Amino acid sequence: MDEYSNTRHRRNDPETSQEAAKRLNVKLCQSRVLNVIRSYGSDGCIVDDLRAELPNMSPAQRMVELERKGKIVYIGKRKGRLGRNQRIAVAVDQTSDQLEMDV
Questions:
Q1: What is the largest CA-CA distance in the chain?
Q2: Are 73 and 90 in contact (CB under 8 A)?
Q3: Which CATH class is domain 15-91?
Q4: How far apart are CA 34 and CA 69, in angstroms?
Q5: To the nearest 10°, the Cα dihedral for 54, 45, 95, 59?
Q6: How far is 66 from 40, CA to CA, in rounded Å?
Q7: Residue 94 and residue 19: Cα distance in Å, rounded?
């Protein structure tokens, strides 16, 4: 059985983490991340770019989810602000319907 089952937390996470996970609007978070990725066009963006534009969000997990849904692809690597390689994400369709909620 998956450690996460149908939730956004692990069974052994503290109660506060479980409560926060239940309150998370995942579709809205995915939509925000996807819109920022789209704004970079065919050049794409890395996690550092997303963190700069969405400072109160952890975009890496949303990128994993968007990749699984076929909404983004990775086209290469680029060094981030700490000098480590990060994958460059590009939206599969470059249409910019701001706040697409069918993510």
A1: 41
A2: yes
A3: mainly alpha
A4: 12
A5: -40
A6: 16
A7: 35
Reported pTM? 0.72
DSSP for 17-50, written as a single string = HHHHHHH--HHHHHHHHHHHHHHTGGG-B-HHHH
Distant-in-sequence contacts of 61-67, Cβ < 8 A, 24+ apart: 62/26, 62/29, 62/30, 62/32, 62/33, 63/33, 63/89, 65/26, 65/30, 66/30, 66/33, 66/34, 66/37, 66/103
Say which amino acid occupies 59: P
Q: What is the pLDDT of residues 67-93, one digit of tens each?
A: 999 999 999 999 999 999 999 999 998
